[in-house]
Design goal:
By secondary structure, the chain is mainly beta. Helices cover 10% and strands 28% of the residues. The strands form 7 sheets. Strands 16, 17, 20, 21, 24, 25, 26, 27, 28, 29 and 30 form an 11-stranded mixed sheet that branches. It is extended, with a radius of gyration of 57 Å. GO terms for molecular function: signaling receptor activity.
């Protein structure tokens, strides 16, 4: 800031001293004896009056020049403006102006405060001037700023109780770490909602105080007790139950596994009994119980090295002392990293100008956390103690996550004509396939055509197979329903499926009575014929549950189930299975004098005689049928009458 700009603004006030000549405007963006805590960066910052929040001094002034990157404007958040009131703020005041455009905001004091907590300017350069005369009270001022890229800018004094929503996302400016305000809790438990939000974010390692940044957190149910912790240069308080607590969101905050520990040296302790206990490098793991790693006494350049096995995204470190009866711990240290274990790079933080000194432990029992912002991407991490208490003793754990793999886009390579490629490149060594020539430029389309042809052939094969199966099934159904009946010749494929085409059976194929002494009668046919067979065509046909004869002209419909026959025809029962229904007795020779006789029984309606084959009668015995009708038994009525058209033949067991 040029001193002339402060002098121009000083014309608005009376008795305002100019900036000291010892302060060079090119080296410092602010000047004056009334400047308090100040941290200014290109993207955000914080400024305050001297002694804030105590009473600011009399007859003092401070001038700050804020400069944002080109193409952006400046936003100002008024955290506190407590200047002693006066007419037109003549005694103590705050004035903001843009010297390039001549726009001014203010003056502000206690009786003329800004109308809104956030001021949006249209300029990338703003000069802030604070002055005071004789006064009695007043805390002074606290102002933060950021660029127009962060419209959710908040002041360093905002607390968690200022919000009611469960999820909060705000932009914290740089420089809130050293602002007065209390925090309760720690990164693992969370923080009371009465804590200063941005200061708690620095303590949790979410943002770096020298940079500021976006903060995302949740307001969750409070806990009974908040433990105190030291982290990132801040000491939190031990607090009691609160209604809500603040939990900050960190995407990469897991404990990393250390494959190997190594150290410059380690201490071999010899106790009073002469026993040796080694404080080796493996004892530096934070999860181990008992003593820690300790360097050899007198070592001035001691270091502890941690090998993660592969490159990791390291976001923080936790250190601890000896954690035993000895009170050994490291108070400050440097951190360096390496990807190959040979070339080491010191960590310098966001400033990048000098090696960052991390604040370590204050006792041998507590744990201290420090965040790496920006994170370290390396496989090897080395801790070099700078100051310690009594002896170098250390336990360490690293926080972070796996390194995200980023696909690097391939550079664009312009296409080269085919003739040039054939003239410059060497022919590829491959075995040619006879009859097949593949052009690399057409390999994709050729593969697509081959896939389409293969799919078509497979589809045709499936259709043919389906048609063949349907044909076989239909043929089986036709053979089943056409009635390949025992005793009839097999139908040819050219014949119509109709019982009319079957040849008429001959009665001679079914012998009506066995020949005496013929044992072949015991072999029953494969199909059992019905008991009653009507052989007279002139007789009246009645309904029957058996399959009709061939002469009736019955045609079997082409169906798979005989219960599904449509039409007017009666449903007929199929013949019994091929096993004989009745077991035939063995034939034995008849004794002498015994013979079988066949009798004709005439019905009451003079119907055709019915023939029964009965056993031989004893002398003087008449058949029962003759006795019932009163007809005398005679030789003429017995025998085998061949004129009987209807006969029932029964076979009696011997």
């Amino acid at each position: 800031m040029a001193r002339s700009q402060c002098l121009v603004l000083s014309a608005y006030f009376q008795d305002i001293p100019s900036c000291p000549d010892a302060v060079s405007p090119e080296k410092s963006p602010f000047c004056g004896n009334g400047c308090g805590h100040t941290l200014l960066t290109p993207h955000s910052g914080t400024l305050s009056s001297k002694n804030y929040p105590g009473t600011y001094p009399n007859h003092t002034m401070c001038c700050w020049r804020l400069q944002a990157p080109p193409g952006t404007s400046i936003l100002l958040a008024f955290g506190d403006v407590d200047l002693e009131p006066s007419e037109h703020c003549a005694h103590s005041s705050l004035l903001l102006a843009d010297p390039q455009t001549g726009t001014a905001y203010g003056p502000y004091c206690r009786n003329s405060v800004p109308s809104a907590s956030l001021l949006v300017t249209n300029s990338s350069t703003v000069t802030v001037l604070f002055n005071s005369t004789s006064h009695r009270s007043g805390r002074g001022l606290l102002v933060s700023y950021a660029t127009s890229q962060h419209p959710d800018l908040v002041s360093c004094l905002v607390r968690g109780t200022h919000y009611t929503q469960e999820h909060i996302s705000v932009y914290c400016p740089a420089g809130c770490k050293d602002i007065h305000g209390d925090i309760w809790g720690n990164p693992s438990q969370g923080y009371r909602d009465t804590s200063v939000l941005c200061k708690a974010a620095v303590h949790a390692g979410v943002i770096a105080d020298e940079l500021g940044g976006q903060v995302t957190l949740s307001r969750e149910k409070g806990i009974t007790l908040y433990e105190s912790a030291f982290a990132n240069g801040l000491r939190s308080k031990r607090g009691s139950l609160s209604e809500k607590r603040l939990v900050f969101h960190k995407d990469c905050d897991d404990v990393l596994e250390v494959v190997t520990f190594n150290a410059s040296s380690w201490w071999h302790e010899v106790d009073v009994l002469g026993q040796v206990r080694a404080w080796v490098a493996e004892r530096a793991a934070l999860s181990t119980t008992g003593h820690s790693w300790a360097a050899e006494p007198g070592a001035k350049a001691a270091w502890l090295e941690l090998d993660l096995g592969t490159r990791r995204n390291v976001t923080g470190i936790i250190t601890k002392g000896s954690s035993e009866q000895h009170n050994y711990y490291v108070m400050s240290y440097h951190v360096s990293s390496s990807r190959d274990g040979k070339n080491w790079r010191p960590y310098r933080g966001s400033s990048g100008q000098e090696d960052k000194v991390f604040e370590g432990n204050a006792d041998s029992q507590g744990e201290v956390s420090n965040a790496f912002i920006p994170p370290i991407i390396a496989r090897y991490i080395r801790v070099t103690p700078q100051s310690w208490h009594q002896r170098i003793a250390l336990k360490v754990a690293l926080m972070g996550c796996q390194l995200a793999r980023v696909r690097i886009p391939r550079p664009y390579v312009p296409s080269v004509p085919k003739e040039v490629l054939e003239a410059t490149r060497q022919p590829a060594s491959r075995t040619p396939i006879p009859g097949i020539t593949l052009d690399p430029e057409k390999a994709g389309s050729t593969l697509l055509v081959m896939l389409l042809i293969g799919s078509f052939v497979l589809l045709c094969s499936c259709l043919l197979l389906l048609a063949f199966l349907c044909y076989r099934k239909r043929k089986s159904a036709v053979e089943l329903n056409c009635g390949i009946t025992k005793g009839y010749p097999k139908l040819e494929s050219s014949q119509v499926c109709s019982l009319q085409s079957l040849p008429a059976p001959s009665l001679a194929s079914f012998p009506m009575t066995p020949t005496p002494g013929d044992l072949s009668w015991t072999h029953s046919p494969e199909y059992t014929e019905p008991d009653l067979v009507q052989v007279n065509p002139s007789s009246q046909t009645g309904p029957s549950t058996f399959k009709p004869l061939l002469e009736e002209g019955y045609t079997l419909p082409l169906v798979l189930n005989h219960y599904d026959v449509p039409g007017k025809h009666n449903e007929y029962a199929e013949p019994l299975p091929p096993e004989p229904e009745y077991a035939m007795p063995f034939s034995e020779p008849e004794p002498a004098g015994m013979h079988r006789s066949t009798c004709i029984i005439t019905g009451p309606a003079r119907c055709s005689p019915v023939q029964y084959q009965t056993p031989a009668l004893r002398p003087g015995e008449l058949p029962a049928a003759v006795e019932g009708t009163g007809s005398p038994y005679s030789e003429g009525s017995c025998g085998w009458p061949r004129h009987c058209p209807l006969a029932h033949v029964y076979h009696e067991a011997l």
